[in-house]
Amino acid sequence: MAEKLLNYVNGAWRESAAERYLEVRNPATDEVLATVPLTPPGEVDEAARLALAAFPAWRRTPAPTRIQYLFKLKALMEEHFEDLSRSVTLENGKSLADARGEIRRAIENVEVACGIPTMMMGDFSEDVARGIDEYMIRQPVGVAAIICPFNFPGMIPFWYLPYAVACGNTAIVKPSERCPITMQRVFRLLEQVGFPPGVVNLVNGGADTVNALLDHPAISAVTFVGSTPVARHIYSRASANGKRVQAQGGAKNPVIILPDADPALTTRIVTDSAFGNAGQRCLAASLAITVAGAEKTFVPALAEAARNLVVGNGLEPGVHMGPVITPQSKARIESLIQQGLDEGAEAVVDGRNARIPGYERGYFLRPTILSDVPPGGVIARTEIFGPVLGMMHVDTVDEAIALVNSGEYGNMACVFTSSGAAARKFRYEADAGNIGINIGVAAPMAFYPFSGWKNSFFGTLHAQGKHAVEFFTQTKVVVERWLGEWSRTF
Ligand code: NAD
Prior knowledge:
Structural class: alpha/beta
CATH class of the largest domain: Alpha Beta
Bound molecules: nicotinamide-adenine-dinucleotide
Strand content: 15-25%
Shape: globular
Radius of gyration: 24 Å
């Protein structure tokens, strides 16, 4: 019998009275792992009100005390590192190595948030006028809702949760309904940590659950990571309700390869970027633009590397790439490949109709490379979110940068070269918030903001590090004068 997932509200596990539960399937085997409730608005209301009730006492808990809970969480996550990683692979399909990398980054965010006593410090100016002082303090905002996508079920909640609670807020996490199991495991650990009731809460569900969070008056801050159409919806609806919002959206990440790029390193790194996590990363390389004849080396090299990738169940040793998340996603990706071919692209490697022995029911594609994709076509413009690398070939760096900047997204752009001058020009001119120079997945460390631009991001402050601290606090400026005997001595 598949596990029935629960919500965690006010320090207790609760079975939702939802009318509908969805099946959560292992994408490598199609086996039902769990069922997840589509929590109705009435239960969201209760969770939000209880989180708000917990806020005043948690806010008054000193920051050095609040972070003790996070130190304990870090220790528990280290202890359960393998279980959490396996859970990510089971529900998401990515290789165990990728899942371990994901949980490692989750823990790094806990570590950074342990610095809150320093990161939350304010400013003080003495004598802004005679006998008058002025200072700025940071106070938490209240209840935060954290809405997450399927592709990093163990990491993305941690871009926000540790900072939110370290800053003195209470929080409600809403995992993806397609990959909700890892957060269930994480909340078992949070329960052991022993946060006061109502500080950390887990509410499962889909669009209606999210909309109830966006509309709820008890919630002050909303963070979102997911696709661009939903990000735009979250940003407009939550901000229309007076909340502070940051919404990270989709991506279409280009990498530029110059003829002086190191062949072996570039091939290895671009292959991992395009096909790791079956291309279901918001930082996946999805378009490789070769410059001034670099295609002569890199089309065959990338094709060979793609053919050599081992595709299979991510839990098995030696597997580089797992399945995509659902049969619908697989069908959509295969149809986009066909559209690309119909538009005139050349199939260098065609990964459709993959058959993985022993996993005939899994949602597998093999890596696909399409060359000479037309600039306005579907492969050049659409976020495919699957193991498909489009390739285009241009004569100059300026043309390549113009192509990069013509896209609607701005999550990541990378360049591969041995020329510092070319790299500097690219870094300076590329319209993207995360830049890689001889790096294929330019994922910012936990102490840097995850800086999407353009249609990859709606808001001003991003996830992680100092941005998260600013997002989860509001500033209060005090101008202060004291009258009395002592003031006359100045
Ligand atoms: P998604 O937009 O389908 O879902 C994300 C969340 O939104 C889920 O929790 C879901 O329940 C909720 N949701 C879905 N439709 C909704 C609606 N109509 N109204 C309200 N809520 C709704 O995204 P996904 O498929 O889970 O994740 C993949 C997407 O996330 C890709 O586009 C990827 O690029 C993006 N992503 C972006 C980043 C980034 O940092 N920019 C990171 C990871 C993933």
